[in-house]
Amino acid sequence: MNKRDLISVGDFSRDDINNIFKLSKKLKKERKGGRTSNLLKGKAIALLFEKPSTRTKISFAVGISELGGYPLFLEPETLQLIRGESIEDLAKVLSGYVHTIVARVKKHETIVSLAKNSTVPIINALSPLEHPCQVISDLFTILENKGRFKGLNLAWIGDGNNVCNSLLLGCALTGVNMKVACPKGYEPALADKAKQLAENSGATIQIIVEPKEAVKNADIIYCDTWISMGMENEAKERLKIFPPYQVNKELAAHAKQDYIFMHCLPAHRGQEVTDEIIDDTKHSIIWHQAENRLHAQKAILIWLLSGRELLTS
Ligand code: CP
Ligand code: NVA
Question: Which of 16, 36, 219, 292 could lock 152 by a disulfide, CB 3.0 to 4.6 Å apart?
Fold first, then answer.
């Protein structure tokens, strides 16, 4: 079997994603019932993080351990990388030791290079271009909450960043209509790719400027920081441009009455979202969303490592 990577949401077919949802549901139910499966028994999984992380790093580590595998935390500053060893060589060496590499990288090219040079699966745990683990998990959360994808309207408010790009591909694949409202110059890089993908599912993908127009009739409102990791030098300018894109009560009033609010976290309260929106448990599902990272990432690991036979067992 050829190895498979998860660099982009677009690496998965609709079928892959459906199976990952089934597996996530099963693993979640087992865990809630106090049961675990040893599906990663004896597997060493490297966690290589070049940027900070709370949710991704911890949920992968817990998930791997619960499935009988063992997570290896690789701090880049303690590896020979800092003395000039190349990513290509690191990928080849690690392929001889570990069964999967989960990596959060400063440059998207790094994750592409890891995938090209390793013989084990590579999982993108966030790059400047995409955050596929977040979005596959979020789609699972949407399915749990709304029971379907087709016909749902998702409004993305703010920067056309990595999470936005992955969400565009995920919505295009599953049939969720997505409107991105962002300032001119901050459009998502993968909008055209998403529009192409959407031709199969029938989803509509629109990139607009006006937040109210995006939120009108929305089933889901989603936002993220205005200043992603690595963009700190643009903070001053962004804090001037983005305030009209804050998700607050006035904006949310344009959504459907039973809308859900989502945020990948960490949130910058008072910037992209107000406390009254993020803490409104009638609509906000952020804690539930964060928890599902654990279940969905377990499913992703199993899917990449062991594949289809597990679903039938
Ligand atoms: N949402 C997310 O990826 O969070 P962390 O940066 O804490 O991993
Ligand atoms: N867009 C954010 C997501 C953090 C989980 C970032 O890249 O910093």
Answer: 219
Cα of 92 to ligand 1 centre, how many Å? 27
Which amino acid residue places its CA nearest to atom 7 of ligand 2? 228
Mean pLDDT calculated for residue range 139-144: 98
Same domain, 108 and 201: no
Residue with tokens 């990139």: 207
Residues 141 and 230 in one domain: yes
Predicted confidence (pLDDT) per residue in 216-270, tens digit: 999 999 999 999 999 999 999 999 999 999 999 999 999 999 999 999 999 999 9
Residues 157 and 298 reside in one and the same domain: no
- Give the separation between CA 93 and CA 119, rounded to whole angstroms: 10
Cα of 56 from ligand 1 centre, angstroms: 5
Identify any residues that bridge with 70 across adjacent strands, giving them in sequence order: 44
Question: For 79-138, how does the pLDDT look when each residue is reduced to its tens digit (9 = 90+)?
Answer: 999 999 999 999 999 999 999 999 999 999 999 999 999 999 999 999 999 999 999 999
- pTM above the 0.90 mark? yes
Domain for residue 4, yes or no?
A: no
Q: Which residue has the tokens 């920081």?
A: 225
CATH number assigned to the domain comprising residue 38: 3.40.50.1370
Shared domain check, 191 and 95 = no
β strands within 75-196, DSSP E: 100-104, 122-124, 153-157, 177-181
Residue with tokens 């994603």: 17
Expressed as residue numbers, the domain containing 63 is: 9-130+293-306
Residues 107 and 142 in one domain: no
